[in-house]
Amino acid sequence: MITETSELIREESPLLKIRTYFDALQKTVPRTYVFVADLKDNVVLLSDNFVSDFQFPSNVVDDFKSRLMSVVHYDDIERFEEGIKKNFVKGTGDGDHDFEYRFCLPSGEYVWMSCHGSIGRNENGEPNIWSGMIVRMDLILNADGVTGLLNRHSFDEALQKELKSSPDSHGAVIVIGLDNFHIINETYGHQFGDIALKQIAQNITDVLPPDIRLYKFDGYMFGLFMPYGMPEEIEIIFSSVQLCMREIRNVEDTIYCTASAGAAFYPTDASDDVTLLRYAEVALEIARQKGRDQISFFSKETYDRWRYDIGMMNLMQNSIARGCEDFFLCYQPQVDAKDGHLIGAEALLRWYDKDGSVVAPMQFIPMLEKSRMIIPVGHWIIENAVSTAKKWQEYMPDFQMSINISLYQLEEHMFFPFVQDCIERHQIDPTTITFELTESQSVYDWEYVNKQFSNFHELGIQIAMDDFGTGYSSLGFLKNFECNIIKIDRVFVQDILKSDFDRNLVKYTIKLCHSIGMKVCIEGVEEEKAYIFLRDECKADYIQGFFFGYPEMEDVFLRRLKK
Ligand code: C2E
Ligand code: CA
Ligand code: CA
Questions:
Q1: How far is the CA of 466 from the centre of ligand 2 (A)?
Q2: Which of 162, 361, 463, 504 has the lowest tally of Cβ within 10 angstroms?
């Protein structure tokens, strides 16, 4: 605020007369720097925003030229100096002065400035003032070229203003991301993509309350904030957004495009604009991870888990780069149900966290699968499990090693040749290896996976269907895929002594499997009574469970074999 009088301004200076106007003017042109120079005294009046953005000592300076020269980009100095000399020093410019230069912000960042100036003359026609505006290009380009919506910068400004508006302001920050929009661009071309984006922007704007503004962020994202916004209301608005996404079409078809969203609330989640936006973006990321086409609200617990997962992903990536250094295998005994004698083991993956604690596979395998890191780790598992089986067969020649394979691994084209090579290198009898297929979310190419199955059968490797009765591992699966063994999930075993249903289910599933020539392994057997029932009543073939042994370290398991 220019209130203090400066000694640099003489009483008869034109600057003194216009000062009140200047002060009023600078408030009406946001994001623009305003200046007026007294050409006689070389004194310049600068707007407050210039003083604070460029850390000038005061609104009134008498060394304007040298100060400005120190912030102008080296390559623009010559042009700039010429303009200054003509207008400011000599006042001989033709009046208008319209140029673009790069200025250096105190942060070191260069920004383009557009300067518009004009020379004013006194009653004798002599140049006496030079006034003008300097506009930061990055700040005025605040509309998105395609949708016409205000951009992220304007959003930041508006949100900051809203948060400052009252000490107890509350509401929500929402980020909407279009899922897979790049596919629309790739399929129908960018021209159509732009039209669709515009249409989407319009549709979303239409479903928002009239006083809520939609902003366009980079990529295929939109942002908005809703003072007083509550979760229920936001959910309703998001349902309307989902509906309007279904209306995107070109001449021939309706285009399938969905949106996901994330929301964070102020002041509960955070009270500053930067954190709020980050949290809303995290919530969006989580909505996408959950399968898209949905909204997720920020929660500290989910955020902490998400950060933990990201940290773990990085650590695992490093582990893998160092040859799967922090991974190791445990082995859990599998026994013959008839007499309980050892027939082999299942290799179970473990990972050492950075503090040396052991992490269970359910915590990290889904991550390895999603990131496809399961491919290199899967190779490492097979390599190690096969080599261990070969060593142990010295003590027990028909030792069976069961190795878990996720369906993602089967989709990899180098998987079969790798297995073939591994079997050959270790000179192991392939019939002593069983691949347990664990459940997987989605398989894109069933035909290819089926082909892999028959390759393994031909090689002599046995296939077990894991976790039978849960998720994708079901009767339907049995019909389409040839397996040697099915493993009944432990959820059916844990209550087997209490539940008639579970007892019958296990009993008749085993009967069914036997009738089509399959063996059955029962997981999760923890008590003798359950074992006896499974052996005598159900005629199970193999048993795996804590009653016969926990997953053990390699050296511990070896002691079992040496007994
Ligand atoms: P899974 O293949 O069903 O493995 C059996 C899981 O049941 C193991 O848990 C084992 O410790 C546990 N278990 C065995 N007997 C009992 C019992 O009597 N009672 C109870 N309560 N639990 C028992 P773990 O090691 O935590 O493995 C969990 C899952 O992680 C595995 O389920 C498998 O789906 C996956 N997994 C483990 N290792 C690998 C691997 O090397 N590759 C892949 N792709 N997945 C793996
Ligand atoms: Ca398994
Ligand atoms: Ca299982």
A1: 6
A2: 504
- The answer to whether 247 touches 224, Cβ cutoff 8 Å, is no
Distance 489 CA to ligand 1 centre (A): 10
Dump strand ranges (E) for 430-527.
433-438, 462-468, 485-488, 519-523
Distance 491 CA to ligand 3 centre (A): 9
Which has the minimum average pLDDT: 35-39, 328-332, 410-414, 441-445? 441-445
Distance between CA atoms of 347 and 466, rounded to whole angstroms? 13
Residue nearest to atom 25 of ligand 1 (CA): 348
For the stretch 427-462, pLDDT in tens is 999 999 999 987 655 556 667 777 888 999 999 999
Q: Provide CB contacts within 8 A for 464, sequence distance 6+.
A: 402, 434, 435, 436, 437, 483, 484, 485, 486, 487, 521
Catalogue the long-range contacts made by 492-497 (C-beta closer than 8 Å, 24 or more residues apart).
493/522, 493/523, 493/524, 493/525, 493/530, 493/534, 493/545, 494/524, 494/526, 496/530, 496/533, 496/534, 497/527, 497/529, 497/530, 497/533
User: Closest-lying ligand to the alpha carbon of 524?
Assistant: 1
pLDDT computed for residue 116 by the predictor: 83
Q: Which ligand 1 atom is the nearest neighbour of the CA of 349?
A: 38
Q: pLDDT tens across 100-143, in order?
A: 788 888 888 777 788 888 888 888 888 888 888 888 877 777 77
Pocket test of ligand 1: the residue of 369, 438, 496, 552 to mutate, having most ligand atoms within 8 Å of its CB, is 438
pTM: 0.68
- What separation in Å is there between the alpha carbon of 553 and the centre of ligand 1? 14
- Can you tell me the distance from the alpha carbon of 497 to that of 80, in angstroms, rounded to the nearest whole number? 89
